[in-house]
């Protein structure tokens, strides 16, 4: 179990409660299930990495439990009860300083949970009908929430009484009618304070909390259907959005133009993510496929059929190894690729721990090579 | 006779180059009268242009026949050593296996289907109750089509639309325990669309309807269908999408068919078109069956499958038909294979 989970570079959560790991180099998908029998209660709604070294995954299900999955061992290690199913499904999960867990549910309650206690340390209400909560990658104690008729709010978890930034709705339209707004997904732009959101009324907004203007700084419209998922590219000036019809577009945030569309998806987009280092974007949705497109030429690179509808996905930051088919020089190449992977990975503070895991990994790789040889 | 420029190349053996050179020489000789880049389309006079084009086509046809004869002779001359005959490319030949085909033993798919929106029907907990209506102000043909549909589907009720919004109709139907809403859309006095919405929270399928034949237009038909529940035949719904649509159709009819009535409704899927037929059968002996077609017949093509009840603006779509403008036509099939036409 452990070997297969270590190979996987993309993790997806499905509606049947199965956590799926996909290894693109081997073109294989693996199912990881918590219980022996499946049930719809276990439908996975939120996924996030448990630690910066990406050895643990936190899986949030519909019944209010958050399970920890270890990629080293390939099995679920812990289950935590983080809220009632009556409150609604998880709309966001994030990790704070390694041990604390931030969770947000649809009814708007944002809670911070500590390792041991079953009661939340901090609790705040972000309004009703929250659709998404995201954590800022630069400042882990800042989170953004947004939902239907519930504008973008940026909260600082250290001072949870009032939001740091509340967005104002757009100006009334030409008939002086109030514009409806429905924030579906958001992302923090690296390098600056700005936040990008996508709405159910096919708009993409950029907000700047540092400016006195609480209304969006930039507004871009795409398509005629609600935009359900959003992801920023590594460079930070292009955003990828997907809507309920399966149309995925690349939008440029500097001018607000549509750069191009990614073709292939036929169902509503549920999850989108750009790879942290490679110019590659993964999309999953109701059509039960995982598709990986390249951002430069917008061509489909990989397509994997996974039998259930997919809700969310996560990339692991290591390189998506090149497709198989190298032949004899596999051994040498694998070693080289291994070195590259380890060089490109970010350094973590705890150096001694890293070294041991590195050694373990290399040992495992050698073992698997030996197995392949045999 | 002088024909237009020989722009076409002939297939076949090594002689091509030499033949072409010969042609070039000939055309150069003839070029004295015509400019070298002459083509039939440059003649302004329509009659003469037509004549020249006809001659050109005849020449082409003659050459093609000559080539065929030559090939046949060669094949006969070689006898046993002749290379095998080439198989012509057809749509059915060019198919690629569709990976979404459902494997009957697959646990995950079985679980998915066992707990989806139709599970209460397939577990025997609910009975179908269908509401049939049309778009606003329907014309005679559509009205008769709906009435005939109501005789085919047991426990179906036809209601006049009265310009009501579908989004308001749906909750009222749920309150009155309906399991399906079927809306026949009409355009220019002919039914052309069908929205089939499974009620409590089920998927909504939007179809394009074509070739509707009402009962009186059918030749050699039987008498009116009786009140017995028909058997249902679903052909070729083998991919995952096909399964969902197949279950959508199956849940329209009551689970236990009354074999006394000897009626059968068939939904046959071929190349993404679903053909609906309604027959009455009688077994003459163990091997022979006589069938009589009753009831309306129509063809459907799926345009979109939306998760949840009817909400075309904000609903999430599970499958949308995308009409591609390029020359590459791809059939995303509800049937076994995915087909690529280049």
TrEMBL record, chain A:
<keyword id="KW-0597">Phosphoprotein</keyword>
<keyword id="KW-0488">Methylation</keyword>
<keyword id="KW-0677">Repeat</keyword>
<dbReference type="InterPro" id="IPR001680">
    <property type="entry name" value="WD40_rpt"/>
</dbReference>
<dbReference type="InterPro" id="IPR037379">
    <property type="entry name" value="WDR74/Nsa1"/>
</dbReference>
<feature type="compositionally biased region" description="Basic and acidic residues">
    <location>
        <begin position="344"/>
        <end position="357"/>
    </location>
</feature>
<dbReference type="GO" id="GO:0042273">
    <property type="term" value="P:ribosomal large subunit biogenesis"/>
</dbReference>
<keyword id="KW-0853">WD repeat</keyword>
<feature type="region of interest" description="Disordered">
    <location>
        <begin position="321"/>
        <end position="374"/>
    </location>
</feature>
<dbReference type="GO" id="GO:0030687">
    <property type="term" value="C:preribosome, large subunit precursor"/>
</dbReference>
<dbReference type="InterPro" id="IPR036322">
    <property type="entry name" value="WD40_repeat_dom_sf"/>
</dbReference>
<protein>
    <recommendedName>
        <fullName>WD repeat-containing protein 74</fullName>
    </recommendedName>
</protein>
<keyword id="KW-0539">Nucleus</keyword>
<dbReference type="GO" id="GO:0016070">
    <property type="term" value="P:RNA metabolic process"/>
</dbReference>
<comment type="subunit">
    <text>Isoform 1 interacts (through WDR repeats) with NVL; the interaction is independent of RNA or pre-60S ribosome particles. Isoform 2 does not interact with NVL. Interacts with MTREX; the interaction dissociation in a late stage of rRNA synthesis is required for appropriate maturation of pre-60S particles and depends on the ATPase activity of NVL.</text>
</comment>
<dbReference type="Pfam" id="PF00400">
    <property type="entry name" value="WD40"/>
</dbReference>
<dbReference type="GO" id="GO:0005730">
    <property type="term" value="C:nucleolus"/>
</dbReference>
<feature type="compositionally biased region" description="Acidic residues">
    <location>
        <begin position="333"/>
        <end position="343"/>
    </location>
</feature>
<dbReference type="InterPro" id="IPR015943">
    <property type="entry name" value="WD40/YVTN_repeat-like_dom_sf"/>
</dbReference>
TrEMBL record, chain B:
<dbReference type="Pfam" id="PF04427">
    <property type="entry name" value="Brix"/>
</dbReference>
<dbReference type="GO" id="GO:0000470">
    <property type="term" value="P:maturation of LSU-rRNA"/>
</dbReference>
<protein>
    <recommendedName>
        <fullName>Ribosome production factor 1</fullName>
    </recommendedName>
</protein>
<dbReference type="GO" id="GO:0005730">
    <property type="term" value="C:nucleolus"/>
</dbReference>
<dbReference type="GO" id="GO:0030687">
    <property type="term" value="C:preribosome, large subunit precursor"/>
</dbReference>
<dbReference type="GO" id="GO:0000460">
    <property type="term" value="P:maturation of 5.8S rRNA"/>
</dbReference>
<feature type="region of interest" description="Disordered">
    <location>
        <begin position="58"/>
        <end position="87"/>
    </location>
</feature>
<feature type="region of interest" description="Disordered">
    <location>
        <begin position="1"/>
        <end position="43"/>
    </location>
</feature>
<dbReference type="InterPro" id="IPR044281">
    <property type="entry name" value="IMP4/RPF1"/>
</dbReference>
<dbReference type="InterPro" id="IPR007109">
    <property type="entry name" value="Brix"/>
</dbReference>
<comment type="function">
    <text>May be required for ribosome biogenesis.</text>
</comment>
<feature type="compositionally biased region" description="Basic and acidic residues">
    <location>
        <begin position="74"/>
        <end position="87"/>
    </location>
</feature>
<feature type="compositionally biased region" description="Low complexity">
    <location>
        <begin position="29"/>
        <end position="39"/>
    </location>
</feature>
<feature type="domain" description="Brix">
    <location>
        <begin position="128"/>
        <end position="311"/>
    </location>
</feature>
<keyword id="KW-0698">rRNA processing</keyword>
<dbReference type="GO" id="GO:0042134">
    <property type="term" value="F:rRNA primary transcript binding"/>
</dbReference>
<feature type="compositionally biased region" description="Basic residues">
    <location>
        <begin position="58"/>
        <end position="73"/>
    </location>
</feature>
<keyword id="KW-0690">Ribosome biogenesis</keyword>
